[in-house]
């Protein structure tokens, strides 16, 4: 019914606007029939789905600016989209938006090894950058689990993290400059290359993680890093979640900063072992830790010895060091495809993303257990333990009436537990439409007001990615209703 | 003459406003006679000096909010000030401001070792934090050279760096949360503790380094770090600046990330050896490098060996490793008091602060030499070479007619050279009033406009720290004239 209404609306305006898009990007680069646009009805947060007005594929900054200017002048809501792997609905159309897909702007424009930076277009796939520069001994650090398909433009919008952000930081720590098309069509450049403290306000930080609500990023200068001389990876199995949690704290207390420090609980292990990359983890353990150390070769072995000792002190059941890159690679493939692997043990799942002070890990994990019992839904935990960045995966079956809403509510309860523990409602997946109401757990009305006023500076007509990131009167109600 | 005019203006309004301040903070906490306020006429950038309207010393957030609200309601320009060690005039009154001095809000409110954070008031001195927590094995990383006196509130305003920001990042990388009094007197909290990607816009990043133009920071949650298990420090003397520069690049290329990588040229060495902390550096060398590596003990020795090898490959004249903490401490005292030491070889000096891509170090240093010859002023270079963060110190004598302006122009020419080399006009000292015109070297009118619109969101009446950070028509002219 809703779909039909939308469709009719598109048809009424079609000739006029769609033909304008044809002129800007060429006829082949515009989708406008609902059937062609099905995969653009949502991103990786699939609970909300709405049809866009059109999907257009610009090939350069000039075309993006022309599209944005056209939308601004004609009062058409619009949003930018990368690979659509976002997990909070940031690229989901809510208002019949024109989607500006940046997947055809996928060039690696330049690499400057001496000053350790590269310039990419927003549609360039995260992992392609590391693949392109690894022969010279360099890599790009932010490594979201979707890195083999997600785009760096999308990473900038969401300030994406990844398993290795414990040591290396999230996307914002690796962005040196941006070219941005502002919501009025102006093109601006922000950030200087390699400047520790750029003069003026930190617009680079402001834009990074703004979830596509302040401008459309058309070019990105990123920091590249020299490959660590050596890596070692430890896998540790525990019979008690508390022992694993304590090992996490003890490793950090020992002064070691692992490149990654990941945890999975029993339900998660069941999922990954049923998924596409099983590695033979035992099913009867309570938790596992995956710990990686990297750096110059000297000293790595000593750190590994210390990590093994910490595990033993915390009653580890079994612990081993990866024998070679192949084994390390298998362990990571098993971990990084973990979210998707939940599909093997549940028809549907909802990924949550909260953050807590590391010291409160055992207590919050126990609260998540209680939430699981209360809502009668299994919850798997795969997460960046070193950062205190939890990812409860709420398993549900959308065919059971009301179960989708139950999963959403259980997710919200998990976020409440995180925020009550002094943490926050998102570690790396963003707010999007998913967590708009939960923003009230952590922000007062005045604080939300201060933020929305910034949006108005950049985006006075509020045409760009409407209804995302901040609760607005009316909008929240509408979003909540749409969940049914 | 100017001073007298200002004095008269103060007197006319004195009773009314000054008495209001008495009521808010108590009579003893208000200065309002010009003679009492002399040391508040400027900060560490002494070229501009103007008398404030009053200096008030609040003791808590409530008093700050009441003062700010009073100023807002009575249309009184105001600004916040820490220790006044800033080098770009950010705390200098230009418009007969009410100065809110935060030096009496100097408490360390709490330390949470387990989650590695501390909460301080803005007037807390940078080095006091490390001193307070070092017995437990922790420290606070940002270490501007003025750290023994500068306040963490001022560090937040300027996004202060320091010798160790090469490895550890600048202030913004160590701030987890802020309590801020907005220019209308509202109190807001921003940032979550330890969250890699805080939801909403990055206001924490926006406020940090905003040079006191967006709000008055009244409480700061900072990250604290575990002391590195071991440190080693290398001192290397070179006969050619180019050899030293190449050693810098080669160390980074070797995959080593030193905690600090500092350089001084011959003129700078002359200054520090005449200053309060001479250590016997030879006077006949062209440049020295001070290189520190830290981390877990295993591996440090190998890194030092590699650094020594790099120095030898680059024709080092003499190279040595600090024998103990005492020797290391002497080398650092000599370096950190370097700016002030210029007073020993010149009646006046102007510190500049530009950034360039590391690879262009030799070329830009040569340009600075040319600027020195052209303006007939000696220029010493003491700088964070690893970051490409230059600090040309322009030596002059303000008693010679026109020489102050010549020094300012030479400084501006140095910044132009940096920006033309693909760098920027400030690495860590901020823009303040000093570099307001130079903002045009790197920002277009549209970009400056986007930034000033953000200021208007926070600071609609433009009462807070007027005339700083961004060029405004009229203002620039006025500032330039005042330099005479």
From TrEMBL, chains A, B:
- Report keywords, A-Z: FAD, Flavoprotein, Oxidoreductase
Limits of the FAD-binding PCMH-type domain: 48-227
InterPro entries, A to Z: FAD-bd_oxidored_4_C (IPR004113), FAD-bd_PCMH (IPR016166), FAD-bd_PCMH-like_sf (IPR036318), FAD-bd_PCMH_sub2 (IPR016169), FAD-linked_Oxase-like_C (IPR016164), FAD-linked_OxidoTrans_Type4 (IPR051914), Oxid_FAD_bind_N (IPR006094), Vanillyl_alc_oxidase_C-sub2 (IPR016171)
What cofactor does its activity depend on?
Answer: FAD
GO terms of molecular function: FAD binding; oxidoreductase activity
**PANTHER family listed in its UniProt record:** GLYCOLATE OXIDASE SUBUNIT GLCD
What is the protein name for this chain? Glycolate oxidase
Q: Which organism is it from?
A: Sinobaca qinghaiensis
């Amino acid at each position: 019914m809703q779909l039909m209404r939308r469709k009719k609306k598109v048809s009424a305006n079609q000739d006029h606007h769609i033909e304008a898009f044809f002129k800007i990007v060429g006829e082949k680069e515009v989708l406008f029939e609902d059937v062609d646009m099905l995969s653009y009805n949502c991103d990786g947060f699939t609970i909300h789905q709405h049809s866009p007005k059109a999907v257009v594929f610009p090939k350069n900054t000039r075309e993006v600016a022309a599209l944005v200017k056209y939308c601004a002048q004609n009062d058409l809501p619009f949003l930018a989209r990368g690979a659509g792997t976002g997990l909070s609905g940031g690229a989901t159309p809510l208002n019949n938006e024109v989607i500006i897909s940046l997947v055809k702007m996928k060039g690696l424009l330049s690499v400057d090894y001496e000053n350790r930076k590269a310039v990419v277009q927003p549609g360039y796939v995260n992992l392609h950058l590391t693949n392109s520069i690894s022969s010279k001994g360099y890599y790009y650090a932010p490594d979201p689990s979707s890195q083999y398909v997600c785009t760096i433009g999308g990473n900038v919008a969401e300030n994406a993290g990844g398993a290795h952000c414990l040591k290396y930081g999230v996307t914002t720590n690796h962005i040196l400059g941006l070219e941005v098309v502002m919501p009025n069509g102006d093109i601006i450049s922000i950030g200087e290359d390699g400047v520790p403290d750029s003069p003026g306000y930190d617009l680079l930080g402001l834009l990074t993680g703004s979830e596509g609500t302040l401008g459309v990023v058309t070019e990105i200068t990123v920091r590249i890093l020299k490959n660590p001389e050596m890596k070692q990876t430890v896998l540790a199995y525990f019979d008690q979640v508390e022992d694993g949690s304590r090992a996490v704290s003890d490793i950090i207390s020992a002064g070691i900063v692992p490149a990654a420090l990941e945890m999975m609980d029993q339900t998660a292990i069941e999922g990954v072992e049923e998924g596409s990359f099983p590695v033979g983890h035992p099913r009867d353990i309570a938790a596992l830790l995956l710990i990686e150390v990297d750096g110059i070769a000297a000293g790595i072995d000593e750190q590994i010895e210390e990590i093994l000792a910490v595990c033993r002190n915390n009653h580890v059941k079994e612990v081993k060091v990866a024998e070679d890159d192949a084994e390390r690679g298998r362990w990571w493939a098993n971990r990084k495809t973990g979210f998707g692997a939940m599909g093997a043990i549940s028809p549907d799942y909802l990924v949550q993303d909260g953050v807590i002070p590391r010291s409160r890990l055992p207590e919050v994990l126990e609260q998540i257990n209680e939430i699981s019992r209360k809502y009668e839904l299994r919850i798997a935990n795969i997460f960046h333990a070193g950062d205190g960045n939890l990812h409860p995966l709420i398993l549900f079956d959308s065919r059971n009436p009301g179960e989708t809403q139950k999963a959403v509510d259980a997710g919200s309860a998990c976020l409440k537990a995180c925020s009550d523990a002094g943490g926050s409602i998102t570690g790396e997946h963003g707010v999007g439409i998913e967590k708009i109401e939960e923003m009230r757990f952590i922000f007062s009305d005045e604080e939300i007001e201060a933020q929305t006023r910034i949006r108005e500076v950049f985006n006075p007509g509020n045409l760009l990615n409407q209804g995302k990131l901040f609760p607005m009167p009316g909008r929240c109600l509408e979003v909540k209703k749409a969940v049914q």
